[in-house]
Every structure is written in structure tokens, then in C-alpha cells.
Amino acid sequence: MPRRPRVTLPHLPLHVIQRGNNRQACFVADEDYGFYLDWLQEYADKTGCAIHAYVLMTNHVHLLLSSASGDGVSALMKALGQRYVQYVNRTYRRSGTLWEGRFRSCLTQEEGYFLACQRYIELNPVRAGMVPHPAEYRWSSYRANAQGEASSLLTPHPLYLALGADAKARQQAYRELFRDELEPGLVDAIRQATNGNFALGDSRFGDQIALALGRRVQPGQSGRPRKLREPESGELL
């Protein structure tokens, strides 16, 4: 069966996950995490991508990013993946693949879903039982987004900037978002969309993206396909 084309559009956030092959460890030493983040920034700059959030787990990576072009994220992940695999193979005297094939991704609706997806990413170490609070995990964007830790890698998304009038207010408002756990249904929706290369959002968002791309971008349902709604006058996709 042919692979489904990626659901991507310029300037709209994309949640990306890349796993180690057979769930093997991708990061062993602190230097591994550091090099990956350095190269992530280098290739994000070269491909016109903006990184909004990230977490590096032992055997997989989550990124929330947007690109000025439709193929920017793919170019970033290809260059970054190859550079990092070369480093790992040379450092640990191994050969062969490191990653589990193609990275998985989902286009993310900004209103109502973007900040939830950002929280989902930064809460990964908590859900995995590695730390009791995301601030205690070193290899994520939480400390920068919630506590003001300096980071030249991150580009704040407009929805994050809208949380407060200044950096201190934004960080306080962002920390408040983490007082409550994500709803299980929302966690499942993020996972399903990312693993299936679908759009993450409500049905209206799905219809808009489907019209823009000319193909289905949400999980199929039994029965005849539903007719897509045409955009109203003046409505932006």
C-alpha cells in the first residue's frame, strides 16, 4: 500500500514524532541530547522552520514547529536525522538505521489545540513516570516556556505570546495551564492524529484543510464520504 502524503501547509503548526527503530534508545549521554538540539537549531534556521516546543525522550522525539514552506519540515527532519545518525554510528561504533522509518506528524489547529499539543509534548516525561513535574526534566522546552530559561532554539507562537502582556505574565499564565491534566480524550486525539498523519482539530478545521489539499485529512468513517463544506465568502483556510 502506498504511503499517505503528509498533511502539511505553510505557517500552520505541525506536531512531529520520530521514534528509534524497534524503540531502541536514541540518546545515551548528555552530549547526545546537546548535539541533537544544536543541529535542530542549525537546520531549522536553514530550512525556514520555527520550533515552538520539543521534548527529547530516551527513544523518541516530539517537536511542535511551523515552516514558511510546505516542504520545510521534511527537509529539516531529513538533514537532522542523517546528521544525528552519522554522529551516533561514529560515536558508539555501530552501523545501520537508528530511526523507525518516516517521522509521523499531524497538522494542528491553532485555536483550541495548539497549546494543548504543546502541553502534551512537555508532559511526556511526567506521563512516562520519569519526573513528577515537567520542570524537572532537562531536555524539553518547558523551562523556557514556563520559567523563562534562555533558549535561542525556540520561536514563541502567537498564541503563546497572547497569554500575557510581557514575558513574566506569559510564563505565569503558561504554568497555570499545567495545573490540570490533559483530558484523556484529547490525549487520544493527539496520538491518533499524529500516528495516522491526520489533521488535529475540529471537523470544521478538517474540512478546511481537506479543501486546501484536495484529500481526506481525518480518520475515515463507514458509509459514503461526507461532502466537504465550501468556505464562506471571506473565510480563510
From TrEMBL:
Biased composition (Basic and acidic residues): 228-237
Organism: Candidatus Accumulibacter phosphatis
Protein name: Transposase
Residue ranges constituting the Transposase IS200-like domain according to the UniProt record: 9-124
SMART domains for this protein: Y1_Tnp
One BP term from GO: DNA transposition
Gene3D superfamilies: Transposase IS200-like
Pfam (any one): Y1_Tnp
GO molecular function terms attached to this record: DNA binding; transposase activity
